Amino acid sequence: MNLPKQVQIKEVGPRDGLQNEKKEIATEDKIEWINQMSESGLSYIEITSFVHPKWIPQLKDAVEVAKSIERKDGVTYAALVPNMKGLERAIEADVDEVSIFMSASESHNKNNINKSISETYPVLKEVVDEAKKAGKSVRGYVSTVFGCPYEGNVDEHQVIDICDNLFNMGIDELSIGDTIGVANPVQVEHVLSEFEKHFSKDQLALHFHDTRGMALANTVVALQLGYHIFDSALGGLGGCPYAKGASGNVATDDLAHMLQQMGLEQSIDLNKLQEAAQFIESKLDQPLTSKQMGISRRL
Questions:
Q1: Which residues are within 8 A (CB) of 299 and not within 5 positions of it... i.e. 6 or more apart?
Q2: Contact 47, 79 (CB under 8 A)
Q3: Are 210 and 245 in contact (CB under 8 A)?
Q4: Which of 63, 71, 269, 297 has its CA 20 to 30 A from that of 136?
């Protein structure tokens, strides 16, 4: 197999994983959880979102969380930012990286952001410009790349055009999302083979969801094509509020275990990662869905 020499896992659990949880997680528990993950060897943690609390009450404590965590050298602490008001709070909290987001389909974008795609661009451009002035790196997210809950298949040329626009704004990296977990390995190979004609693999990350149990299979296909940056959420937390039945992200613990078995990742301490997973599971109303957590319960 032709595989990359190094792979980076980007943990999105504290933001993407928690944002739709109905049970409110205490601020001090979020802080402790992030601190535990910082000690596990992860090099990137998306810690929160500076979206208005009206839309995501679970993350209303974004500033307090960002200011209170114990920052570890070598770890990037990022946060999602929807607009200039959110950026002001993110800069106040001194996050390392700002993430912007939009969808590849009009319907999902309107439901998620309440704007058309064309209306979204100027809002994001202002955020990117001001974040750069503040010395922050900027990451972009494009959702529903492999399928939309409202429109079905999404034209890959439309996706590439959106990605072009975001890179032209000056973002440093772009995360390509299978938001509702409909991608399959053949589709992933086709889409990513098109992407590599337009963009550097060093600037693209893959964000797979495991709704139909294909996230790790899709990851392997991406690895074979030379992609080496992957988003995940510890324990498989997460989901899409606008896609009925969409389950969580690919689990960080499962992904890290697979990569270590393949000889592609050696920096993460799986025992510390599992301890962090057990900690956050104890604060939730339901068990985490990762295979690693399932195994630990049976042992």
A1: none
A2: yes
A3: no
A4: 269
Residue whose token pair is 């896992």: 9
What does the pLDDT look like over 213-255, one tens digit per residue?
A: 999 999 999 999 999 999 999 999 986 655 555 568 999 999 9
Q: Is residue 123 part of a domain?
A: yes
pLDDT along the chain (299 residues), means of 10: 93 94 95 98 98 92 98 98 97 98 95 93 98 98 95 94 97 96 96 96 97 96 98 89 67 97 94 97 91 89
Active site residues: 240
Whichever domain contains 192, its CATH number is: 3.20.20.70
Q: Give the model's pLDDT for residue 246.
A: 55
Name the one residue in this structure whose structure tokens are 């809002």: 123
Per the domain annotation, does 1 fall within a domain? no
- Token pair 């988003």 in the structure block, residue: 231
Residue 3 forms part of a structural domain: no
Amino acid (1-letter code) at residue 252: T
User: Considering the domain boundaries, does residue 2 fall inside one?
Assistant: no
Distances (CA, A) of 160 to 82, 147, 163, 185: 21, 14, 5, 19
Which pTM was predicted? 0.96
d(CA 74, CA 2): 28
The pLDDT of residue 285 is 80
Domain count, the chain: 1
Domain containing residue 223: 8-298
H/E stretch holding 91 reads: helix 84-92
φ, ψ (nearest 5 deg) of residue 68: -105, -20
- Token pair for 269: 């301490």
Q: What is the CA radius of gyration of the chain?
A: 18
